[in-house]
């Protein structure tokens, strides 16, 4: 039998910086009123809101011109949980559950950290998006007309307000340009495949929302049509939005179905923390319309089946260990169950890893966000020892501690959108294991990298304080530059190569020790260092001129093997050409006693 193919609703996610108006926009879309009831209303799903296409068409009115060609989509399905954390959590088909996204930017505040994070994430997932430049009603003197299309509303604004909007839009366009995006006000976009469309809106008053919906529908139809084709009869696939206890139902999962049809007698395979859960559906539930809820215990209606795209609550035994962000696959035969199990296990095992390598410990709230953070770390060349879902535990800290013994810079725990358990916090504090937590991936990594850099600087300063640099000097041949013969000897010298500092020991060509430089005087000032080319007077404790040293003689700063190893391995960048020559010359002297120096 030929399976029927149908285009489903695109799944839309809303992202953006905190307080830029994501929730307000979703609320406003939920309350969209259409004159004339025949258009039908907004449908509330579990965890999602559906805008039927008739509503979009009705709202569009003359804006229908914005897209060419027929719209065959049944509607738009907005995920109710906004934000980049939710977005990264919701994986599907190895990418994102969302087919398209709306990036909300407060036009008065412009780009903020979570705006940039959202853009990076959308880019990484190759998710097309539209920009909603929100809060235009805040522009001075703006005339508000609720629910008006932007293109009509803009005609009512005075010159000044229009100018201010333009200036702010240009600032946004400039920021997008810096990130490599060509962006423009939606009605000035020539080619939607190459330019990002910016729709000025007021989420609070509904201005511009008609255009936003029209564009989402138009773009989905045009560029996602193939992706949105589903086999209506096929077994369902979805992603868990949330795992929830419900009164009288036990643990349930809220799922967005993006493919096929889910029936109430299906068996489902569900992703858990470290296993695939196989269970039989007890009930499929949809929210009861608000005005029909008389008793809050009965907030749901049972349904026999749902077809993608849809948000549905599934009640079934054994869901306690189901994990948000994980896949749900319906199976109708033993063979299908086995296949689904394998697929889910593969997905878990590709993300939840324990390598035993020297590397950082990574924790995140869901499989999706763990994958996103791990990927980003790998791209930066930061090795991972363990990546797992869940809060940061004492075990994680102990594991980081063991890594630190081998490589201090990797002895850390990085957590995305997770909490730090109390005992973990205590151990980390006591043992000095750094924990980095946050909900912005790029900032998390930036913070860690800044810490690594600061630690390296600190270590370098410490090394510099204790290591001896190579130096080669020559006493002036003229007796006039012997200022004092002993206790201490004070002689005029020239630094031939490298550098000298008070405290270093000098040796002769034969390797024999001469004494310790007590002080260095350049002209009439005591200095802490003299470098190649400097002519200075030095006081040498323990040497007697005429017995141990002689005018015209070449002397070397004595180095230990440890000095050489530190200089060449850890402070290489601190050595200049002359230091390297001094090191070679000194090594030649030292090699007479110890073959180690032949290799320097
Ligand atoms: P979210 O954190 O991105 O979900 O932001 P919210 O939707 O919670 O909005 C943050 C604040 O901005 C709230 O006080 C909203 O009332 C306000 N807000 C959102 N959209 C608009 C808008 O279009 N105009 C104005 N004036 N305020 C808005």
TrEMBL record:
GTP binds at residues 16-23, 80-84, 134-137. InterPro entries: EFTu-like_2, EFTU-type, P-loop_NTPase, Small_GTP-bd, T_Tr_GTP-bd_dom, TF_aIF-2_arc, TIF_IF2, TIF_IF2_dom3. PROSITE patterns: G_TR_2 (PS51722). It comes from the Archaea. It comes from Thermococcus gammatolerans (strain DSM 15229 / JCM 11827 / EJ3). Keywords: GTP-binding, Initiation factor, Nucleotide-binding, Protein biosynthesis. This is Probable translation initiation factor IF-2. Belongs to the TRAFAC class translation factor GTPase superfamily. Classic translation factor GTPase family. IF-2 subfamily. The keyword Protease does not apply. Function in general translation initiation by promoting the binding of the formylmethionine-tRNA to ribosomes. Seems to function along with eIF-2. NCBIfam families: aIF-2 (TIGR00491), PRK04004.1 (NF003078), PRK14845.1 (NF011418), small_GTP (TIGR00231). Residues 7-227 form the Tr-type G domain. CDD domains: aeIF5B_II (cd03703), IF2_aeIF5B_IV (cd16266), IF2_eIF5B (cd01887). One of its GO terms (molecular function) is translation initiation factor activity.
